[in-house]
Amino acid sequence: MQQYLQQDIQFLQGTGPKRADILRQELQISTLEDLLTYYPYRYVDRSRFYKISEITSDMPFIQIRGKIHGYASIGKGRGKRLVADFTDGSGRIELVWFKGAKWIPENYPVGKELVVFGRPSVYQRKLNVVHPELEDPEKKHAVSSKLQAVYSTTEKLKDYYLTSKAISKLMANLIKGLPQRFEETLPAWLLQKLNLINLDSAMRQIHFPDSIQEYKKAELRLKFEELFYIQLNILKGKTERNKRFRGNVFETVGESFNTFYREHLPFELTGAQKKVMKEIRRDMGSGRQMNRLLQGDVGSGKTLVALMSMLIAMDNGFQTCIMAPTEILAQQHYRSISSFLEGMDVRVELLTGSVKKADRIPIHEGLLDGSLNILIGTHAVIEDVVQFKRLGLVVIDEQHRFGVAQRARLWKKADVLPHVLVMTATPIPRTLAMTLYGDLDVSVIDELPPGRKAIITRHSYDSKRLQVFGFLKKQLDLGRQAYIVYPLIKESETMDYKDLEDGLESISRAFPPPDYQVSVLHGKMKAEEKQASMSHFVAGRTHIMVATTVIEVGVDVANASIMIIESAERFGLSQLHQLRGRVGRGADQSYCILMSGYKLSDEGRKRLDTMVATNDGFEIAEVDLKLRGPGDIEGTQQSGIPFNLKIAHLGRDGQILQLARDTAELILVEDPGLKLEKNFIFEKHVKKGNPGRIDWGKIS
Ligand code: ADP
Ligand code: MG
Questions:
Q1: Which of 398, 491, 650, 680 is least buried, going by the fewest C-beta atoms within 10 A?
Q2: Ligand 1 pocket residue status of 582, Cβ below 6 Å
Q3: pLDDT tens across 90-130, in order?
Q4: pTM of the model as a whole
Q5: How far apart are CA 267 and CA 100, in angstroms?
Q6: Ligand 1 atom closest to residue 451's alpha carbon, by position in its atom list
């Protein structure tokens, strides 16, 4: 059976080489199995007939029964179309064809009883259906009476008449031609326990459901299976890794930590910080190597948690290293960590690309003889010349800018793998984290330090720019600083650059020197120019920073309290949230103003509304996941993790995912190697749960 399903799609009845080519190009379908797992995205109820008088243009599909009254050819050139006047006695609706109209009047003569199926819309205040499906109700099997699967297609597919209906036809041919039942991929005991239907019924029902209940059961079964094998794969890998890689045991919480905690910590830790510290201490003392992802919104106090973890490492005789994605961020960490530790006997050094050769020598020596305790840096820290005496903990800030291979190079710097703490301010919904970082343990700081003023966010239309500038002026005159950000889209960098240039001109006119100074930051500038521009702004010499999105994640300018985002509808939600996180870092009330035109897509409006409604990064990430699907979530693409879920949706199937994970966990607790007879079937399929990710714990 498995072999049968690997056959080329072109030999399926109804395809042939040409259509097979198109299917391959457009939908990456090349085998029978690929087609089978091309699941419908929705179903329409073909058992229901509407009256024309009931129809509104926002219905996704309608099915009506009636007669064509007459045909007319209307319009010229591209607008040329055939229009049929259709009625069922309750009202009238127009049927419209822009192409392929020639044979219509012949096949569907005036006055004949017909069933019409399609999507209603309104044109010139009249209801119509463009390119409807027509059927003769007297023909046998003509009218489908059941739920009908709808498959997504593309314009190109339609050019080859590969409509949803045609795909359904191919699916029917495929299923009819199967030599035997689908082989089960989950053990019977599990199906029974979770009350799931078998694979054979599920595959048939998902494409040709007998009823809504049946397709729901099929969908549950298939979604569960997909998510289950991913979780089983991830968790099995993790179990094996835990067995193979011992970690350094940090038993003592000693003098450095205690001195810092009692005498240097200027404030009380938040509850969330305390909770996370406990989790980290438990990991580092467990004898296993820690692989922990620390999530927390910007400003939630992750750096402090990292610092305290590093002090524990020090108390146990280990060196630590913190790695940031940019020079500016590394410097920022260096400054804040050095000032936290002032007066303590801890040697901290900064190592970035711009540190001179001569200055590196003492750093290298300090690392080798163990006198250097904390190294802070950029990519420079992973160069081969950088060798530690005893590296015990690595902290990686803003993880998704670091490639997997780069992280792996740090592993080589110690005999026993160092503990790893990855920090990110990009909130990842739990469901996504479970899958993307399923092999990492996740800690969340879900509480901001007290006394922060929530950022006020408003949406403003471009036509109100004068008012916005007026508001900005008031704030600048109070001594604050502002960011104005323009979108940057790769495909048309020149055009976006022009947006920024035009914007810059009007900003300079509204805020002329010498009273106001403006900094600029965009991708076409050289690294030194960027650096210079940023440091003018950080030092307060300039008042407005006009930038594209190259402005750094995590840059901290406490006095900057206004963020204006131009063409905000062009940004993704998590990007908007990241940008907003640039303000709200000081004591002053901060503002974020989202500019857009009046014309907004539903999704664009939803994004802006969400930003106005909440400051909670996790809530925003959940909405983002629902709107976009995980493949588009920022960070997942850069991390090079191919996501190819065929039926499950991480945004909507959180409960099924949880069930899948819990189930996988239970199975592995009882049978870590999947060696029991009742679990044999898992061993055979667990590989397909591999989302293609490089397991960086294994690169050592
Ligand atoms: P993150 O790295 O998560 O963006 P930081 O660690 O940079 O956040 O913390 C942001 C600011 O809040 C810093 O100035 C830090 O000193 C301060 N801070 C951290 N924890 C607390 C706390 N528990 N109470 C008050 N201020 C805190
Ligand atoms: Mg930070």
A1: 491
A2: no
A3: 999 999 998 777 788 988 999 999 999 888 988 888 899 99
A4: 0.68
A5: 74
A6: 25
